[in-house]
Write a structure and sequence with these properties.
With about 450 residues, the chain is mainly alpha-helical. The chain has a domain of about 325 residues. Helices cover about 50% and strands about 5% of the residues. It contains 17 helices and four strands. The longest helix has 28 residues. The protein is globular and about 60 Å long. Keywords: Disulfide bond, Electron transport, Endoplasmic reticulum, FAD, Flavoprotein, Glycoprotein, Membrane, Oxidoreductase, Redox-active center, Signal, Transport. May function both as a monomer and a homodimer. Its cofactor is FAD. GO terms for molecular function: FAD binding; protein-disulfide reductase activity; thiol oxidase activity.
Length: about 450
Amino acid sequence: MLSVNCLKVITCALIFNQCFGFFNQPQKSHEHDDCFCQLEGKIDECSCNIDTVDSFNNVKIYPRLQSLLVKDYFRFFKVNLKRPCPFWVDDGGCAMRYCHVEYCEENAIPVGLKGERTASNHNKYTAGPESCNEHQDLGYLNKTISEKAQHDMEKWAAHDDALDNFCIKDDQGEGAEYVDLLLNPERFTGYAGESAHRVWRSIYLENCFRPKETFSFNPYIQAAKLNNMCLEERAFYRAVSGLHASINIHLSAKYLLSGRNGLSLKDPNGEWGPKLDEFKRRFSPELTNGEGPNWLRNLYFVYLLELRAIAKAAPLLERENFYTGDDSEDYDTKMAIKDLLSVIKKFPEHFDETTMFRGSKEAEKLKYEFKQHFRNITRIMDCVGCDKCRLWGKLQTQGLGTALKILFSGKFDYDGSGKLVNKTDMQLQRNEIVSLLNAIGRLSTSIYKLDDFRQMIR
């Protein structure tokens, strides 16, 4: 029999529990938190925490990028979507209407992007007729060039391009056209199945570095095995995995909802929105062999990598004119970029690229392999069967490749006095700037949408 004192203690405890729920705290539901169970603590290979990035992105970066990327300079992207797949026989393009890309009419492209000479850009970029004719007789320039010399120059240019660039660029020449990204948003098109899986299998199995002591036909490397790889190899995998996770979040956040069974690819006015079941299918531990939450974690790694690249290229971006031919909008774009850069530069815990490829000849060899592997991934984008998916795949891989170029080419490095280490001026082409800012915009949106899915689950 319980003593009177024991009964009093139990009674008090029950009253305390009824008032404050001490003994009955609701247990965290695995169903609620499974997808997000790895989204806490320090980001792998980085010094800051996930919740720091969530707050910084959702409050400061995401709103600024949303207003910036609708500007004409960033909404028009030049791309060649007609290049054949260089690795396997084309298995047929996507025939569904939402895979189709709407190209720009000629009169919709800003004159500054077409290189047309107007009074505005003539004054900015040309010397004026009197300076051209003033010294006509000072010398004669032979403008003829042999076909062989032209071919040699193209080979030299390709060689120089390969030395610095982590991407195969295709915005020049026959087949390259401007696309309005606002008219062709990234969302679920219905493209799936073996064609899509083949692209990602090729990326992971044939181009990502793998742990040397094991072989697996599973394209994804288990998080526990990543520590068997060196820092640079881990970083490569995390960047690719984070990009893949970001794309899967976009497809889940803008899923085709209209029609019977949630899908009507014949509906000309399709309705898109978040689909929680699709998000769970792509990231829940039960359906991804426990790896889905780690893929979400890698999203934060690639976000920090690209954010650091933008901070490192800030001196160049601050000098850019962002010229489209509309003086008012160009000024607004320039001011918006300066505002964004001022916020990014204040972020205290950027990715530290100086820890990678340090010192030895082996490090230089690894950097070369790193670059060639990623260049190959940009070529695989020509094998994507859905034109709209190919468009956004090309843009985001080029954006990531531009970030890698900024971080590791050596041409954007400064010494302690603030001077460029490499005497060659750092340069970025317009398409590289457009892809870099749109790529970080996609990653930023993914982190923002994660919070929406978290609320939906709860």
